[in-house]
Design brief:
Length: 215
């Protein structure tokens, strides 16, 4: 299955004119981009789908430290893409205009990523399971609430610490009309589920569900 080019999400950084169809990701169509688009269209590491499939088959591409097996797999916000032969690491982020972009990161940064807590469950034995925005679930003793963020150690495959939703916290707006903006929290209104943010000497109100705590 493919997507019509005119129907791709607005946050995909691809031209609206060109071939009629683009690859459809296996999952998370609005929250990420296919590996094929990342390698071919954004990083320019391949000219076509055949070349992308070849580098994947040769085990040259890692996603969050694990081998990629399909060019349709999605790379999500703050995921880490590693090019094995050159030992270069990249992070998927958002531009100020709210479009996905890939930024090169320094050695050592590839071992961690941030994700939002979107659900929380208490399991048998009073163990706490945190369900994250990237689809991953973790059992953790670290105290953390829905709408907080967590810092994940990708090597140890565990949550290292909680980044709480609180006043003065730094956030990235990842959805809505303000997507891509990085700001500081002034006030939190839990009743309206809104936060007032400071952004370039102006104040904006954003739904808490559209915020990702980054530090």
């Amino acid at each position: 299955m493919h997507l019509k080019r005119q129907k791709v999400p607005k946050n995909w950084p691809i031209k609206r004119k060109g071939t009629a169809y683009v690859v459809r990701p296996n999952s998370n169509i609005s929250n990420g981009i296919p590996i094929l688009v990342a390698l071919r269209d954004m990083l320019k590491l391949a000219q076509n789908r055949k070349e992308v499939k070849k580098v994947i088959h040769e085990k040259n591409i890692l996603l969050n430290g694990s081998l990629i097996k399909n060019e349709k797999n999605s790379i999500l916000l703050f995921d880490i893409l590693t090019i094995v032969p050159s030992n270069e690491n990249y992070r998927l982020s958002l531009s100020e205009k709210g479009k996905f972009q890939i930024e090169k990161i320094n050695a050592g940064e590839e071992t961690h990523k941030v994700a939002k807590v979107i659900n929380k469950k208490i399991l048998k034995g009073k163990k706490t399971q945190l369900n994250l925005s990237d689809g991953k679930n973790f059992l953790s003793d670290i105290k953390c609430n829905v709408n907080d963020s967590v810092l994940i150690n990708l090597n140890k495959k565990k949550i290292e610490k909680c980044l709480p939703l609180k006043e003065k916290g730094d956030v990235l707006v990842f959805a809505g009309k303000h997507a891509g903006k990085k700001a500081n929290i002034n006030k939190i209104d839990q009743v309206r589920k809104m936060a007032e943010l400071s952004f370039e000497d102006t104040k904006i109100n954003v739904l808490i569900k559209q915020l990702l705590i980054i530090k």
